[in-house]
Structures are given as C-alpha cells and as structure tokens.
Amino acid sequence: MRLDEIVARFGGELIGDGQLAIQQVATLERAGPTEITFLANPKYREKLGTTNAGAVILAPEMAKESPTACIVSANPYLYFARVAQCLNPAAALATGIHPSATVESDIPATACVAAGAYIGPRALIGERARIGPGCVIGAGAELGADALLHANVTIYAGCKIGARVIIHSGAVIGADGFGFARQQEGDDAGAWLKIPQIGRVLIGADVEIGANTTIDRGALDDTVIEDGVKFDNQIQVGHNVRIGAHSALAGCVGIAGSATLGRRCTVGGGAVILGHLKIADDVNISAGTLVAKSIPKAGNYTGALPFLEHSQWLKNFAHLRQLDTMADRIRALEAQVKMLATMPGKPEDEF
Amino acid sequence: MRLDEIVARFGGELIGDGQLAIQQVATLERAGPTEITFLANPKYREKLGTTNAGAVILAPEMAKESPTACIVSANPYLYFARVAQCLNPAAALATGIHPSATVESDIPATACVAAGAYIGPRALIGERARIGPGCVIGAGAELGADALLHANVTIYAGCKIGARVIIHSGAVIGADGFGFARQQEGDDAGAWLKIPQIGRVLIGADVEIGANTTIDRGALDDTVIEDGVKFDNQIQVGHNVRIGAHSALAGCVGIAGSATLGRRCTVGGGAVILGHLKIADDVNISAGTLVAKSIPKAGNYTGALPFLEHSQWLKNFAHLRQLDTMADRIRALEAQVKMLATMPGKPEDEF
Amino acid sequence: MRLDEIVARFGGELIGDGQLAIQQVATLERAGPTEITFLANPKYREKLGTTNAGAVILAPEMAKESPTACIVSANPYLYFARVAQCLNPAAALATGIHPSATVESDIPATACVAAGAYIGPRALIGERARIGPGCVIGAGAELGADALLHANVTIYAGCKIGARVIIHSGAVIGADGFGFARQQEGDDAGAWLKIPQIGRVLIGADVEIGANTTIDRGALDDTVIEDGVKFDNQIQVGHNVRIGAHSALAGCVGIAGSATLGRRCTVGGGAVILGHLKIADDVNISAGTLVAKSIPKAGNYTGALPFLEHSQWLKNFAHLRQLDTMADRIRALEAQVKMLATMPGKPEDEF
Hints:
Three copies of one chain form a homotrimer. With about 350 residues, chain A is of the alpha/beta class.
C-alpha cells in the first residue's frame, strides 16, 4: 500500500514521497524502509531521530522532527490502528464443518467449525462466524455474524453473543453465578444450598473477550455486556453484572455480582469492584484499586498502595495498625498546646 | 406447583390463595403473576409494594407489607433456594458415551460422556456422573456418583472427586504444585530444579468449583477439599492446601501452598492467603485482604484499602511512605509539650 | 535405590546403613522405613525426632539430631529435589498420533499426540514432544524437543516454545495483547479500534507454565520469556513483556504490557507489575505488591497491606483518607510548639 493511498483512505497530511510502498507496521526501533510506525507518546520522542522506518505517523507538533516521510494526524495512535488493520486483514479461514466436529444445529455455509468443536442443539450461528478447535457451544446459544471464537472457548446454553465479537481461548461465558443460601440451623448448619442460575449472558456487538476471562450467567435476570466493551485476559465478571458500552477492562479485574459499570469506563489491571455497586459513566479506576462503594460521578479514582524497599515498608506500614492511636495523640497534643498557649501571659493571638 | 404444595413441602406460613400455580422464580422487579419471588434484604423493601409477583417469600416482619400472596419464613433466601431448585431440576442428560469421546475405562450405563471428552485408563466413574464435551480425566482419577463436569474441565491423573460435585468449564484439578529448589552455586546458580508433585487432590462431596478455578495436587501429601466447599471462578489453590467443610470462596481468591482454612470460613473476592498459614474455623476474610499471618480465632478480618478521587489519593497516600517519620514527629512533640508543661510555673496537673 | 547409590550419584555424606533401599520420597510426618525425607527449614526441627523415615536429607548442623540414617548436604532441599526426580521419572507415554487427533503437520515418530488434540499446518514439533488430550497448536507454531503439554493447552499460531518446556492445562500462549486505540470524536467517540497483534510469544528452554496462565503475543515485536522461568497458575503476562532467565512468579501475578523483568527475580502471589516498567535483575517482589514504578536496583520490595480484626480496621484505616490533614496538623503543632518554646523566658536550648 503506497503512502498516498493510505492518506487517500484515512486522511491526514502527508509529508514526503507518496509513492513509497508500505508492507507492514512496526515499532520506531525496529521498523525498516518498507514499514510504517507511529509516535503517540512524546516520551518516546528521542527514538524518532534514529528510526529507519519508511514513514512515521505523528502529531502536528512533532512533524518537523521526523527524519523520514510522515503522516500528520491529530490522533496518531488511532490512525496507526486503522493502517495496521488494513495491512493485517483477518486470515481467511476455510468454511465448513471439520469432520471431527460434532454439530447438532444448522450452520450457515459461510461459517467455519474447526476440529473437535461441539455445538449443541437449537444454537443459532451467524453468517461467517468462525468457531475454533475445541470450542463448546451449548444448546440454544446464539453467535452473531462474523463472530470469532479462538480455540477452546466455552459458551454455556442459552447465552447470546453479538456480531463481530472476538473471544480468546479458554474464556468461559455463562457458567453458573456464585449463588448459595446458607443453612442456619439443624445438622446442616453452615452448609450451602445452590440457587439455580437461570439467567443468561447477553453480549453486544464488537465486544472482545480475552483469554481465560469468565462471565457468569445471571441468577434470575441476565448478565449484560453492552456493545464495544473490551475485556483483557483473566477477568471475572459475576452474575447480573451490567457493563456499559465501550468500557475497557484490563487483565485480572474482578467484578462481583450485580455491580453496574457505566459507559466508557476504564478499569486498571487487578482492580476489584464489589457487588451491587453502581459506577457512573466515564469513570476511570486505577490498577489495583478495590472499589467498595458506588461512584456516582465521572472521574479518576485510586486506592492503590505505594511500595517500598522491604525494610522501609516494615518500618512505615506497621504504623497502619496504629493510625487511630496516632490520630488520638495528635488531638491530645492540639488540646495541650492550646492550653499552654492560652495560659496567663501567653499571646494566644499569635496562632 | 401450587402455593399450598410448596408450603406442604417446605413449611412456612402461607398468606393468600393456596391454589395459585407457580411456574418459575424471578426478581421482585420482573416477576409476573405466575412467578414467585423473595425479599431477604430489608434494603429492597420499597420494591415490595410495586411487585407484580404471584407470591413473595419473606420474613415475618415484612408480611404485612406484601401486596400479594406470601409465604412467611424465618430464612426467606434459603426457602427461596429450595423452591428455585424444585422448579428448576437439572436437565436430564442423555446417558452413554458419545461416539467422538475416547474412553479407556469402564463407565456405568447411567453415566454420560459427551462429545470429544477423554477418559484415561483405570478411572472410576460414579453412577449418573455427567462428563461434558471436551473434558479430560486422567488415568486412575475418580469421579463420584451424580458428579457434573461442565465442558472443557481437566482432571489430572489420580485425583478423587466426591459425589454430587459440580465443576465448571475451564477448571483444572490436579496440575503440579509450584515446587522448585534453587541451585545456589555453579554455572546454574539461580536456576530452578523441579520437585516432582506426587500428591493428589481429594475433593469431598457436594463441592462446587467455578469456571477456570485451579486446584493443584500435593507435593508429597495430598491437597484436601472437604465436603460442601464452594469455589467461585478463577480461584487458585496451591499444593497441600486443606479447606474445611462448608467454606465459601469468592472469585479470584488465591491460597498459597500448605495453607489450612478452617470449616465454614468465607473469603471475599481477590483476597490472598499466604503459604503455610492456619486459619481457624468460622473466619470471614473481607474482599481484597492479604492474609500474611495465621488467624487462630473466629471473627471478621480485613486489610482492604479505601479508594479516593485520584488527586486526593495522591495527596494522602504519599504520606504512607513517611508514616514512620510522622510517628517520630508525634513522639518528639509529646516530649516537647511535656517539657513545656512541666516548666516552673506550669500547672502540669491540668493534663 | 539404595542409600549408597544415592550418595554415589548426588554426593553428600551418608551417616547410616548404605544398603537401605529407598522407594519413594515423603514428608517428615508421613515417611515410612522405605522412604526418604528432608529437613530444610529449622522451624520443622522438632518433627525430626519422631520421624519414621528410612533416611533424612539434612544440613550438617542437624545431622546429630537425626534418629535414623541421614545424608548430609549443604542444600538439603536441592538434594531432595534431585532424589525425588530420580525416584519419580516422567511416565513413559505412548508415542504416535491418537486416531481422534487432527494433525496437519509432520510429527516425529518419537512424539505423542493424544486424543482430540489439533495441530495446525506448518507447525514444527520436536522429538519426544508430548501433546496432551484436547491441546490446540496453531499454524506455524514450534514446540521444542521433550516439551510436555498437559491436557487442553492452547498455543496460538506462530509462537515458539523451547525444549523441555512444561505447560499445564488451560494455559493459553499467544492470544492477542490488549491493544486498542480510542475514537476521540464523531458518533463513535469513546469506541475502541483494535490494533492487530502481529508479534509472537517466544519461550526459552526449561520454562514451566502453570494451569490457566496466559501469555499474550506481542503487538508489533515479540513477547519474550527467557530460559528457565517458572510460572505458577493463573498468571497474566501482557504483550511485549520480557522476563529474564530463571525468574519465578507465584500464582495470580499480573504483568502489564511492555514491562521488563530481570533475571532471577521472584514475584509473590497476586503481585501486579504495571506496564512499561523495568525491573532489575535479582529483584524480589512480595506477595500482593502493586509495582507502579521501575525498580532499578536488586533487593526486596513490598507494598502489602496489613490486615486487622474488622472493627480495628474500620477504626484505623478510615484515617488513610485524612493522612494529608494529619500531616498538616503535625506541621502546625511543630510550629506552635517551637513558638511556645522560644517565647521570652523559655529555655529553647533544651530541645
């Protein structure tokens, strides 16, 4: 693809030779003369001078520093994403059902079911859907057009997956939520009685779900993931959670049952959101934060702990157990100092 | 099922028309005239007035507020669980071995082995056990009567799973524990030598294991999960852990090797219990807590961090690194104030 | 294997009858007369006196206390690892391709492909590699000699796995990294555009990867795991991470994209390392620590929170939100006390 073709298709201002043919995307450090790269974070500016890339996508204020052809865009990373998608179209998979697959529903001729996959009865599979090796799709589940399940994905019965959804290996959609009632008395006191989980998981269009992420089915109502939500790997979503459109969740996040996350939220790696909370639209939660109450207002929220060299940590963090005592001692000191300052002959006004 | 039949079977006091036929369970908000719901948490009391449910299960003190038929029970949620189970019996699965499964052991005629599953030699499979598509059961493993493995579960060789155990997709039982000895000297200094993990996982009856949860086999002795323990999704249990009967662990919990958890404990989401610790019976650990020493006494324990709006967090949490200095400064102030107060002419007694 | 044979092979000093035949390894508590055990941690010293083991591997300073034959070694645990490996050789697996597997590449006659596995085209499989039931290996992937994939492992296209690597069930190697560019304006404002992930995962020799661990492929360059790294279960490794040789990571660790971990590092359970950070060689990070900035120097680092009985936690940790105010109050007190102390007639020098 030539640079002028790229600009014709995606806009931006081209500075340099439009005839240059670009074959692939690459990083500033590794890109060669037939590759295009990008500079989005000013922090990596010094790498620009030494790049061997054929062309660089960058912001207007960096254009002068480019040692090579460049495409100027207000959002270089987004522009780069478009070019990268264009140069790396999804591999065309064979269509049809592999002889080792077991399929108990009708499948469109344009869809692909790979080796060893299993599709139960009454499933609805969309046009051009691709179902990887070893996937299991339960009875009555629905998979939208152009959806892509990588290998070894499990979809439980009755769940609905939207168009163009991508699900990575090991993800499990629709397992039972964690719902049990506790016996209070009798021989079984303390034992748990299972609550049947009869809701479903409903996943909108253009969602991506990372490897080994789990999204539980609802207890009575459904668990709902709106359009365009992006999940990284190893995320756990409890029953009856609702996640608003275009939110993005980094790896290892946990969202407990019946929590509601707004639209366009971001959640950093390893953060945990407790059950039944409501998080507003456009909330950004930092990595490692435990969200233990609702957040009614957009903004950035953090509860992460700084780390220290271990001996420093021992010295400092032991005081966490005495914070209340420290606060009491400060209060007592304030009272004493006030008294000292107001004794006859003390110029109280000075304070 | 009619209301009078429900009360005849499960007890409780019926207020209203016993002839009403109930078809399903539902939430207070969504339930319709042929559905039964429950009110367990007084917080949701205001939803009671507007429910369209055919009947509500609730506590004695709420009975007067019910706009519709109700069943009065001291533990409405437990009662609801019983009704829900009754109205939602486990789907009757086909018995027999799917032709695409590979089975190298004898299987009872009442059991079911689904498409693509693999069962190794010398396995013992109980009556009416159901083994989902793509499951793998290693050589010599045992699966109790009425156990249910959802799709793509892996059981390593030699592990024993009790009666009526439910295991969700992607769970892995019996992988090697994390045991390595470090080379201290020579060319390989720093390299790790694997300790063969020759113990097993022994899982009692009525345990439920969530999606993508992993329970490692013991190094020398066994990892033991007692009866009735409930695991949510994505939990990691290290080698030689022992978990007491009827404990319940929420999603993303990690329990390091050789830790012992008592009976009827609860562990909140994302909590971590370090290795070799002993946790007493009836201990409740809050979400996000890192348990770094043993807990010899029943009770509730917490080590979670509050979160703040990000700029507030920056301002407040930076002081964590200076807590020791803050404590020193308070001590110094106390000494100074004491000296000021005891100087000639100062009425020390006032403090 | 006789004790004198063990010492002849692995060194150390034998005290006792060299003719004793040892059949298995076991713990101090459980070992019987034909079993060998070890004592590495002086904390368990008191168990030595009552052991029924045939022999004990222990350090020189403990040799006198042994009630039975012993092998004296400077590093008893490492010595034990060697003996344990010797007594527990890997099970000899059948070679060849199971008829239910689907294999689209050439496989060496010494390799084993178990039931239901799938190997795509152009894969390179090493001599004696063992591929468990239900594994999926993508097109063009490479698996080194003597590598062992337990059941239901997924390797995406193009990834390279070194010799003698062990991967446990449910692990996913090479899923797409979490890379998206955000639309800033227009109807799609807030929506995410996928960045194709065209890098690979390159895994060195002698690496072990725990159950349900996920290692993402690189965005543009590769994700690299050097020789001898050991991963526990449920670890998440983001795109373009690099992990130095002989590092060891405990369960539930998360490493965000483009982070670099040095050689011989250890990371405790549930710790999180944020993206783009650089961690030096020989860094030890404690369990539960969130690493939010680079660590340029070897050492031990911790950021974990102590836990308390819940009511104590409530009382103490609420002050975390007022730490900045507490610091201000201490500063004000210091100013006041200084002023009081320096007023005419006050002996300032005393402080």
